[in-house]
Design a protein that fits this description.
heterodimer, A: 3% strand, flat, B: mainly alpha, two-stranded antiparallel sheet, 20 helices, 3 strands, 3% strand, globular
């Protein structure tokens, strides 16, 4: 499919535009932080861009943690099916 | 004052049993029963009680409380809108079961005593199991049996707890319970199993996604939120619930991040969302309890909306995996848009329902100066956007072009989604009607400039993290191990191994006995006494003779002594 036939959202140049808008929005939220005063309970909420970096860092942390955990926890989709297949094969064998 | 002759929940249960009578009767019941039920719930004032003597106990099949009314209202609404979503595509079996399920959940929220509660609790387990059966395929049947076993186990704990509690206190009233003895802990455990608490959280992601497109919508609403209701009434301010809730929150996020099946992603996020509510109940202040109740209300709406949008995709494409989906916004734009509204609401984006409810829980953690809880909740709010808010719409509707061009969702499905999407935004912009029916008076203002800036920063940067980390989020054709490994893998393995061991033992014993017996026989035959060997070579006559002699001897002995 040529670039022209694709939906607006799938064209390369528009994706770049979307990224620019997104980053501009991010900057605006951080700048807006200068004009408001966060109610402080723990002494860090009103520091520069606290919620911005906290949101970003914790999310990256969660993705990395999930990825690492995935090494131990991930199994093929039919992991539990093979179990029952063996069982049913055995019962069939018993019938023979 | 109106008299209620029937628990409003029972109305739905009885009505559901009439549904198989005909398709027109069924459809009429789907639309009229929830409305009737709502009218009944709101016709009686708070504090209204109906009592019924039973086996020396004074049952209270109906007790109207503010919390009960709130949950019963959202359950009725869910039955109605779920009915609209399902009535053209779902089987009558599924719809009847769903209404039995909804009705019994409403029954729990309006029961004043533990016995009534338990009865409705168990009907709920049966109704929901049949909803899963109605999907009518092998995997669903297997999952439903695992689901049923977990819930029967939970019911067993609850039953034992209630029995102990009644013996100890002599009271069957369903009210705030103090954790004095093992009985109350058993009740707590029974409730927590239905909430999806650890270690048995796996049942939600195991069973719910196996149901039909509409079945999962019904399932997402009732069981876990009924558990939230019972915890809210019986164990507010129980410290133990805070770590359990926080665990559930992060369990949901991490497992959803690992998941490939779109409806399983949403199932994990049920655990995550219920975690917020459980934490709120554990915090136990009026604001936290209001937050938990309000969040349950808002959650049922946006979670159902998300699962409806996933259900519509499943109905049109027959595909569940993120790896098979993508680019569907092109031909299912409304489903995509409405799904995105649900995704924004679950992420508590400002001007959606999640924003005005969840923040009450975080605020009460701050008010109590519980730093760890507050920081965990803030991270989790960002994490919700990450695992459900972006991940679900991105992988299903955008991501890549899967090449599929399914038609837009059927009209009744779109209507149901629109109703809930309007509620998601409506409650977010104008939360006062919801605040008015919460258990306690609300002194909370969600829309402050500082709060808005905080949430926009938190969520948008979570979004940035998603797109930056996208290469690491590539979906794989995998499932993730969970506690259910113990009963799905280890138990069958133990079963097979012990069967082998027993079979081996059996053969060996039989062999030893056989050779031993043969050896004994040959020894006996070799001996000179072998001709007297039992009755082997004797005629029957001689045996009769000996019996005669023995009986005669007995007779003589009898006469003598």
């Amino acid at each position: 499919m040529s670039e022209q036939n694709k939906r607006w959202l799938l064209r390369k140049e528009n994706i770049r535009t979307l990224w620019i808008i997104f980053i501009a929005t991010l900057l605006m939220t951080v700048i807006a932080g200068f004009f408001v005063h966060q109610h402080e309970s723990f002494g860090i909420e009103d520091s520069f861009g606290f919620f911005a970096w906290y949101g970003f860092v914790t999310c990256v942390g969660m993705v990395v943690f999930a990825k690492l955990l995935g090494i131990f926890l991930k199994r093929p989709e039919n992991y539990y099916d093979t179990n029952s297949n063996i069982a049913s094969n055995e019962t069939e064998a018993h019938h023979d | 004052m109106t008299e209620l002759f029937l628990p409003p929940g029972l109305l739905l249960v009885i009505g559901a049993l009439l549904m198989p009578l005909g398709i027109n009767i069924r459809n009429a019941l789907i639309f009229s029963l929830p409305v009737l039920c709502l009218l009944m719930i709101w016709s009686a004032p708070v504090g209204y009680v109906v009592t019924l003597p039973f086996l020396g106990f004074e049952l209270e099949p109906i007790r109207i409380t503010t919390t009960g009314q709130l949950f019963a209202t959202i359950f009725s609404l869910m039955a109605l809108v779920g009915g609209i979503f399902a009535y053209k595509q779902a089987s009558t079996l599924e719809l009847s079961a769903a209404f039995v399920y909804a009705g019994s959940a409403i029954g729990v929220t309006l029961s004043g005593d533990l016995i009534t509660l338990f009865i409705f609790w168990e009907i709920m387990a049966i109704g929901s199991t049949i909803v899963i059966w109605a999907a009518n395929h092998e995997a669903a049947y297997r999952a439903s049996i695992r689901y049923l076993l977990i819930h029967l186990f939970g019911g067993l704990l609850l039953m034992a707890g209630i029995a102990g509690h009644v013996i100890e206190t002599g009271s069957i009233r369903f009210e705030a319970l103090s954790l004095d003895s093992i009985s109350q802990y058993l009740i707590l455990a029974g409730f927590l199993i239905n909430a999806g608490a650890p270690p048995l959280s796996a049942w939600i992601a195991d069973a719910y996604p196996e149901a039909s497109p509409s079945g999962t919508v019904f399932l997402s609403a009732f069981t876990t939120k009924t558990a939230v209701f019972t915890l809210l009434v019986a164990f507010p301010g129980t410290w133990l619930l805070i770590p359990i809730g926080i665990y559930m929150i992060f369990y949901g996020i991490i497992y959803a991040l690992l998941e490939n099946d779109m409806r399983r992603i949403l199932a994990y996020s049920i655990v995550n969302q219920v975690g917020f509510m459980v934490t709120g109940i554990g915090l136990g202040t009026e604001m936290a309890l209001n937050g938990a109740a309000a969040h349950a209300f808002a959650h049922i709406i946006y979670k159902a909306l998300l699962l409806m949008s996933a259900g519509a995709v499943l109905y049109r494409t027959d595909k569940r995996r993120c790896t098979d989906l993508g680019g569907l916004f092109q031909t299912m734009p409304w489903t995509a848009l409405l799904g995105i509204i649900g995704a924004l609401a679950i992420s508590s984006f400002p001007f959606t329902s999640g924003f005005v409810t969840k923040s009450m829980i975080a605020q009460s953690a701050a008010d109590q100066h519980l730093a760890i809880v507050w920081f965990a909740l803030a991270a989790a709010s960002a994490g919700v956007f990450l695992h459900a808010g972006i991940k679900f719409p991105w992988f299903v509707f955008f991501q890549k072009d899967s090449g599929m061009r399914p038609p837009e969702a059927p009209r009744n499905m779109l209507l149901a989604m629109t109703v809930f999407a309007v509620l998601c935004i409506g409650l977010g912009v104008y939360p006062e009607p919801l605040y008015a029916i919460l258990p306690f008076e609300v002194n909370y203002q969600a829309y402050t400039a500082a709060h808005l800036v905080a949430y926009f920063q938190l969520l948008l940067f979570a979004g940035l993290a998603f797109f930056v980390m996208l290469p690491m989020m590539k979906r794989t054709l995998t499932i993730s191990l969970d506690f259910d490994w113990f009963y799905r893998k280890l138990l069958p393995l133990v079963d097979r191994i012990s069967l082998k061991i027993l079979q081996g033992l059996n053969t060996t014993t039989a062999m030893i006995a056989k050779t031993g017996w043969k050896r004994l026989q040959s020894t006996l035959r070799a001996s000179s006494l072998s001709k007297y060997h039992l009755s082997e070579s004797w005629p029957t006559g001689s045996m009769v003779l000996w019996i005669g002699i023995m009986l005669g001897g007995y007779l003589v002995m009898n006469a003598w002594f």
